[in-house]
Design a protein that fits this description.
This protein starts with a helix and ends in a 10-residue tail after the last helix. The strands form 4 sheets. The chain has a 5-stranded mixed beta sheet with strand order 4-1-5-6-7, sandwiched between helices. Strands 9-8-12-13-14 form a 5-stranded mixed beta sheet. Helix 6 crosses helix 8. The N terminus is likely disordered. About 35% of the residues lie in helices and about 25% in strands. The protein is built from 12 helices and 14 strands. The chain has about 350 residues and is an alpha+beta fold.
Length: about 350
């Protein structure tokens, strides 16, 4: 009996002692918010980007930070102003607080949190216009600059909430994520499911849009709803009869008797975009060296988000009369483009 009581007493004492080196997350979050509010004063915190949903600190999840940020500011998940950015589990927690003083001013501070406390970077106006230099953002925010700046501008631009959700999962808002929003809406509008049907999407070619498409259509590799195959982005599929350019993936609607496959094409409408952005018709579009192009292209697509059929089209379709024929499209060694469009004589010699 004595040993049992001693054991219980030890357990009670140990349970009352915080884990060694594990900071109080609520206190840490309070310090982060206070520092952000002071740095952004006199304007309030209007939005918050954070990895708290997936972050970890000394082995503990950081999800309680989401409540702290929401309780101490006006940001919330429901309003779309508290935005969880997806990262690998266990990354150190951070939060970027944003204040929108006016249409041209979008001030941001980035606060990184750790056992030793908080570290603040900024504030800096991250509102992007044509020609905006990202070098100052990179010098202040480091490798997170592109992610934070594009997401913050997407929020300020009123990007559709479902597009923002896909971008947060993708961890940044590049133009490729926006194309996935239009393609997903096109599929749901033009190729809807009926009872007993399901989608299978083939990313051929695959690009940033695929992360949004998987979430929008609920097609994941684990549920056998998504497959990707290596194919050069931008390369046309050239048969003897026809050239298929701007390929945008393959969507298959499966049912108990087989299914129907459609090859999609995405028209980027670069000429219209250049006009929208005030660029000359012959201006080069260097997406890597000129990151502000992504922000402006997202604005361009968002202003036309209600017209997915203006960008997306079906270039070929085929009915399969047995489930085995549908399954054959994803087997090793099968080229779905050959099956659906016909052989491309140059494909074997293409690196």
């Amino acid at each position: 009996m004595y040993r049992l009581l001693l054991c219980i007493l030890c357990c009670l004492v140990l349970s009352a002692i915080p884990a060694l080196g594990n900071p109080n997350l609520e206190e840490l979050g309070q310090k982060a918010v206070a520092a952000a509010q002071k740095a952004l004063d006199p304007h309030p915190v209007d939005a918050c980007l954070t990895n708290a949903a997936t972050a970890g600190l000394n082995g503990s999840p950081c999800t309680p930070l989401l409540d702290t940020f929401s309780n101490l500011t006006h940001v919330s998940l429901g309003k779309g102003s508290l935005m969880p950015v997806h990262e690998r589990w266990g990354e150190a927690p951070w939060a970027a607080f944003v204040s929108r003083a006016n249409d041209d001013t979008l001030d941001m501070v980035l606060i990184r949190m750790g056992p030793a406390g908080i570290d603040l970077a900024g504030p800096v106006n991250v509102r992007v216009a044509a020609g905006t230099d990202f070098a100052p953002f990179i010098s202040i925010f480091g490798k997170q600059a592109f992610s934070l700046v594009t997401l913050a501008n997407g929020w300020a631009d009123g990007i559709p909430v479902r597009l923002m959700a896909g971008a947060l999962y993708h961890d940044h808002l590049c133009c490729g994520v926006s194309t996935g929003y239009l393609i997903s809406n096109y599929i749901l509008d033009q190729f809807p499911l009926s009872q007993g049907q399901s989608y299978l999407y083939l990313g051929i070619p695959a690009w940033c849009q695929d992360d949004l498409i998987m979430t929008a259509l609920n097609v994941t590799p684990g549920k056998h709803g998504y497959v990707t195959m290596a194919y050069p982005w931008g390369r046309p599929w050239q048969t003897k009869e026809k050239s298929y350019s701007n390929l945008g993936g393959i969507i298959i609607r499966k049912d108990s008797s087989g299914g129907e496959a459609r090859v999609l094409s995405f028209d980027w409408q670069f000429a219209a975009f250049k006009n929208f952005a005030g660029l000359s018709p012959d201006a080069p579009l260097d997406w890597k060296a000129t990151p502000w192009l992504h922000v402006l292209y997202n604005r361009f697509l968002a202003s036309r988000a209600y017209r997915p059929a203006a960008f997306v089209s079906t270039v070929a379709s085929k009915r399969f009369n047995t489930p085995a024929q549908v399954n054959e499209l994803t087997r090793l060694g099968t080229n779905p483009l050959t099956v659906l469009l016909g052989p491309d004589p140059q494909w074997r010699t293409t690196p």
